[in-house]
Each structure stands twice: as C-alpha cells, then as structure tokens.
Amino acid sequence: MKVNPKQKKENLFFYNNLMLIVAIFCAVCFVTYFTVENKAIAKRSYSLDEGSTYGPIIVKKGQPKLCKIRSSMYGDNQNIYFSGEVLDEDKETLYEFGKDLWHESGYDSEGYWSESDRNMEVRLAFTEPGKYYIQFHTDENMMNNITLEIVVKKGSGIPHLMMGTYLILIIIFLFIIMNRKWVRENLEKLNDVLEEMSDD
Fold first, then answer.
1. How far is CA 145 from CA 21, 32, 98, in A?
2. N or C terminus of the chain: which is more exposed, having fewer CB within 10 Å?
3. Would the pLDDT of 27 be above 50?
4. 128 or 153: which carries more pLDDT confidence?
C-alpha cells in the first residue's frame, strides 16, 4: 500500500503539536509541584513530653495540607519505638504511624563498632475538611530522647507530580509512534549487541 506523503506530513505535524502541548503541561505540573511543596505555613522544632499533642491542623474544603514530621533520637545503646496518632476533632484515632529508632555500639576483635537508625520522616496528607491533631508516644516514657521538627505546608504537590509522571509516559508513547522505524532499527542493533555479548 502506497503511503500518501501529504497524509504522512499532516500526521507528523499533528503528533509534533500534540507532543509539544503535552510537554508544556508536563513542565507546568512539575513546576507547580515544587511551588506547592515549598509553601510552608508553619515550621517549628520541639522537645515534647510523653503524650504531647500537636494541632489543630485546620483543613478547609479544597485547601489540603501536608505535614512533614522529622524525628531524631539521642543517646547511645538505646532502642526507642517512637509513634504518633492522627486524631480527629473529637480526639478519636484515625490512624497511627511509628518506627524503631536505635543505636548500638561496642568492641570486637576488629575494634570499636557502631550502628544506628536514629531518624524517622513521615509525610501526612490532610485532604478532607476538618480539624486534626497529632499525638506522640514512646515506649518506656523516653520522649526526652526525641527531638521533632514539624512542617505544615499549604496544599499537597503529589497530584501534580503524578500528573507530570503520566504525561512523561504519554510523551514517550508519542515519540515511539512518530519514530517507529528509528526505534525498530535501534532495537535490532541492541539485540545484535546483546547476542554478541552472550556469544562471548
């Protein structure tokens, strides 16, 4: 079947414009992701007591908030399970999070050794309207060995990041459609190289 050169040119023009539009939207998604993620409305470091509560985090309709919690454990040769509970405005538990923070050290035949996992980072997305609180706990009342940094940001950039990722996949798909012959030839070359390597 003979390909109409005019039709081929029109198709190429269509795919080029479509790819350009998708690429622009992709760039916008990534720019807005970093912009939204950097709008911190509250940032503070804490040394909390056992059972301390942070909040309220007030979420209005259409205005989600993202809360980043960074915790660090101080002290040697300790193991502390640090946990938190997300509470609603009635102080009912919605969900929990936590991690074992630890440090171990000693001496063996090779000398002094030290291993640790002292830090935890959690991201909490609040999308539904309401008031939220975060309550913190440790086992064996060891909160004085924990320091916290809590950052609340206006909005969440995750949807923008996901959309940008999907658009990149669309761009790759369009590129393959527009350059089928080039892709096929390079795949054949790659296959030949792999066969030569396997023969060696």
1. 53, 38, 15
2. N
3. yes
4. 128
Q: Where do the domains of the chain lie?
A: 5-34+160-199, 40-154
pLDDT confidence of residue 5: 54
Instruction: Give the sign of the dihedral formed by CA 164, CA 166, CA 167, CA 168.
Output: positive
Distances (CA, A) of 194 to 22, 87, 186, 199: 34, 56, 12, 9
Topology (CATH) of 40-154: Jelly Rolls (2.60.120)
Backbone angles phi, psi at 39, to 5 degrees: -90, 75
Res 39: pLDDT? 56
Q: Which residue has the higher pLDDT, 185 or 200?
A: 185
User: How many helices and strands, by DSSP H and E, does the chain display?
Assistant: 3, 9
Q: Which residues of 174-185 are buried (b: 16+ CB within 10 A; e: fewer)?
A: beeebeeeeeee
Cis peptide before 5 (omega within 30 of 0): no
| Cα separation, 142 vs 48, whole angstroms | 10
Q: Give the H or E element holding residue 183.
A: helix 180-199
Question: How confident is residue 22, by pLDDT bands cut at 50, 70 and 90?
Answer: confident
Cα 4 to Cα 104: distance, rounded to the nearest angstrom: 73
134, amino acid identity = I
